[in-house]
Design brief:
Protein name: C40 family peptidase
Strand order of the largest sheet: 8-13-9-10-11-12
Number of domains: 4
GO molecular function: cysteine-type peptidase activity
Distance between the termini: 60 Å
InterPro entries: NLP_P60_dom, Papain-like_cys_pep_sf, Peptidase_C40
Keywords: Hydrolase, Protease, Thiol protease
Structural class: alpha+beta
GO biological process, one term: proteolysis
Shape: elongated
Oligomer: single chain
Largest sheet: 6 strands, antiparallel
Number of helices: 22
């Protein structure tokens, strides 16, 4: 790749050293620029609002236009649906189809862009201006805080990104509340957001690894360094964090890898479906798990293992390795010695009839066919080092910033929906032990479920999460599984906030299969998928509930 970038105004190239010099702007310059952008966007926001006040609402689409739009989508969906029916028979067809879809997406986006430039409703302009103004304000206060507290930069790009996002959300919330009350101004919200940054800094000083931002930063430190070193966008930690958590491979390669894995699963299914027709045994016994996987798990594993972009050709061997580790097919043939009775009859010289019955032995073949689906999401802990596992956790937390890639995956709803909110009564927090447990546990809300994970750097599974939280709050029992936590706890029928709640049958394992932290009033905080609050009164948790346990 060339080390120079074309200059569209002069036709000359910009030396790399010039870009580096620009990248080394002082924090004061960045803060000043942020403030200027914030002021300019504030002016644009006011102008957009004035324009909106004078604008009549657009007329709704007529019936003809609506019908035409639906018909167009119907034909397009039918064509691609027919292609999809035969895609899994040919990976090349799959890749070509996905490339076609990508091209159509670009075309559609381009069309929308042109239309938007010609006629954009002022309401949309106001929303966009408000969004930009919010981002610029958060950016300004973040840079101002970093200038006053340089230690905030030590957390890495992801840490800075999450801190800025927290400030942005708080600022937007303050603006909405001010708008509802009618008498408050956005400037007061800005002031509140500025105070929030001071609280973030103070908390970070007291708990250097406690913040969600700092913890998530550990998840992908090496990957961040690798991605940031290759980026040409400068002066923005947000861009670096997004790049580090985004799938770097081409759509055609990722969709092709998924299609290739599905083809292997289809071949395995066909082999099992036709087993009795293609084998010659006397008796068959089948014990078969379902053949299935989630595409985001597959792509996240491949990307974490390759530590960067990859092509379909490059990961063919890895796909086979993953398939062989996920699906464990066992075919045992037992040979039994069986017999049947046979009678010989003959007549002697005197004309008397005689018979002789005896056993005839033969081999009887019994075939036992067992298929274990080890679950693709359970493999990372066994095949990855800590750094790779950290990358995998981050890709799963963000779905590679591509929720559109596999929209039917259940992970899309889980990881794009806001976390379930639950307010803990102040009376419960009077218990200092529970308050400490809750404070530690809430740091990791939103972390993905990673089988075998037991620390912020790798994320957690259910028992790893509980073990880590309690060991940070005064206990020292190490890393225990759900059954181990049950064994060291004392059963109670009157649980209090801070106790544990245990479940069975949430997946195929004997004994206790899941554990969470009871927070009172029929709620728990647990490592679901992702970490968050859950209502124990739901039918699912009620059907799997086993017991409450006390560790105090």
């Amino acid at each position: 790749m060339s080390e120079q970038t074309s200059n569209p105004t002069s036709g000359q190239s910009v030396p790399k050293s010039r870009k580096s010099k620009f990248r080394q702007k002082s924090q004061q310059q960045k803060t000043a620029e942020s403030k200027l952008r914030m002021e300019r966007r504030g002016e644009k926001l006011d102008a957009a609002r004035k324009k909106l006040a004078k604008q009549k609402p657009l007329k709704p689409k007529g019936p003809v236009r609506r019908v035409a739009g639906v018909a167009g989508r119907g034909v397009h969906g039918f064509v691609h649906g027919k292609i999809y029916e035969v895609e899994h028979e040919n990976v090349g067809t799959e890749g070509a189809h996905r490339t076609e879809l990508a091209g159509e997406t670009v075309l559609r986006h381009g069309t929308r862009f042109v239309k938007k430039q010609v006629r954009e409703h002022p309401a949309r302009a106001v929303r966009r201006a408000e969004s930009r103004h919010t981002k610029a304000t958060a950016d300004y206060y973040y840079r101002k805080t970093v200038e006053e507290h340089p230690e905030m930069q030590k957390g890495g790009a992801l840490s800075r990104y999450l801190q800025k996002q927290k400030i942005k959300r708080q600022y937007a919330k303050q603006v909405r509340e001010a708008a509802k009350q009618g008498g408050k101004t956005a400037e007061k919200a800005v002031s509140s957001a500025g105070k929030l940054t001071e609280k973030v800094v103070a908390y970070a000083k007291e708990h250097p690894v406690g913040l969600l931002a700092a913890a998530l930063c550990l998840i992908l430190l090496l990957s961040l360094q690798s991605c940031l070193s290759s980026m040409t966008t400068v002066g923005n930690g947000l861009v670096g964090a997004v790049a580090a958590s985004t799938y770097p491979s081409e759509d055609a390669d990722m969709l092709g890898a998924e299609a290739a894995y599905c083809a292997m699963e289809d071949e395995l299914q066909d082999y099992l479906d036709s087993y009795q027709r293609t084998h010659d045994y006397d008796e068959y016994h089948f014990d078969l798990d379902d053949i299935e996987h989630d595409p985001y798990v597959l792509i996240s594993i491949l990307t974490a293992l390759r530590e960067g972009a990859w092509t379909l050709e490059e990961v063919q061997g890895t796909l086979q390795m993953l398939f062989d580790r996920q699906y464990i097919l066992t075919e045992d043939v037992v040979v039994e010695q069986r017999y049947y009775l046979e009678t010989d009859t003959w007549t002697d010289e005197d004309g008397n009839t005689h018979s002789d019955t005896y056993r005839v032995y033969y081999d009887y073949y019994i075939c036992y066919v067992t298929l274990e689906n080890f679950n693709l999401s359970h493999l990372p802990i066994y095949i990855m080092g800590e750094d790779q596992l950290s990358r995998y956790a981050l890709y799963m937390a963000t779905l590679g910033n591509r929720p559109d890639l596999f929209p039917s995956s259940p992970y899309v709803e889980k990881y794009t929906s806001p976390p379930v909110e639950h307010d803990i009564p102040e009376a419960y927090l009077a218990d200092e032990t529970f308050a400490a447990i809750l404070k530690e546990a809430e740091k990791y809300i939103g972390f993905p479920y990673v089988w075998g994970g037991s620390s912020p750097s790798t994320s957690f599974d259910c028992s790893g999460f509980v073990s880590y939280v309690y060991n940070q709050c005064g206990w020292s029992f190490g890393r225990l599984g759900a059954q181990g936590l049950y064994n060291i706890s004392t059963r109670t029928s009157s649980p209090k906030p801070g106790d544990l709640v245990f479940f069975t049958g949430t997946y195929d394992t004997p004994g206790i299969s899941h554990v969470g932290i009871y927070v009172g009033d029929g709620w728990m905080l647990h490592c679901g998928d992702p970490i968050g609050y859950a209502n124990l009164n739901s039918s699912y948790w009620q059907s799997h509930f086993y017991a409450y346990g006390k560790l105090f």
